[in-house]
Amino acid sequence: MPLLQLKKTSIIRIRISDKKYSLIIRLFAVDVTALQTATIVFVNRNTVNRYFSYFRCQIIRAALKERRQEKITNEVEIDESYFGPRRQRGKRGRGAGNKIVVLGLRKRNGKVFAEIVPDASRRELLPIIRQTVKSGSDIYTDGWRSYDALAVYGYNHKKVNHQKNEFAREDIHINGVESFWSWTKRRLAKFNGVPPSVFAMHLLESEWRFNHRNDIL
Question: Which positions, given as ranges, span the membrane (predicted)?
């Protein structure tokens, strides 16, 4: 779904020139914030926000379609991460304070899928993994105990022990999915905080942008 091919829609009942619309969508494609875009294009920020919301809805539709059409196979890296105020430390397991817990699954050198979960317990993580990753695949994780049952379900489970400062052992690592966490947190930081009410939308947008970061948007 090339972003630059999105046309103005009657759903957004705002009078704006084609030139300004084209500039708005180009700035959105390169991930400029709504405030910066409003300043550059000389339009009201609320106008930009309405267009950006429309664009994000199209991205979410595309991302969800990709999820339905693809099941991850072969080498898959899995990890969970915590999003929220830096001053509050997250904790693994049954909740993470005021942090939002996200499970990430990334095919080696391929696409990533991110899912918000209530906590990092086995009960929450394993059903998502089994639904997303084909049985028999090689799965790489850290030493978190919730992943210990993966072998029972037919996966070739390989792990590194971060608690013992082991981050890679030959081809056993989770550097790929961790690069997605770093990329996403850097991206979201420029918004100066994302409210929990819209975090899921921004997370799915980050997933889609990461998966298509080398494409022409």
Answer: 21-43
If one counts every other C-beta atom within 10 angstroms of the C-beta of residue 30, the result is 8
Measured at the alpha carbon of residue 180, what is the angle toward residues 183 and 184, in degrees to the nearest 5? Answer: 40
Distance from C-alpha of 38 to C-alpha of 191, rounded to nearest angstrom: 14
Tokens for 200? 């899921």
* pLDDT tier for residue 166 given thresholds of 50, 70 and 90: low
Correct CATH for 71-87+96-212 of 3.10.20.580, 3.40.50.11260, 3.90.550.10, 3.30.420.10: 3.30.420.10
Tokens (6 digits) for 79: 């990890």
3-state SS assignment for residue 188? helix
What is the pTM for the complete model shown?
0.86
Phi, psi of 130 (to 5 degrees): -65, -30
d(CA 11, CA 207): 26
In eight-state DSSP terms, residue 46 is H
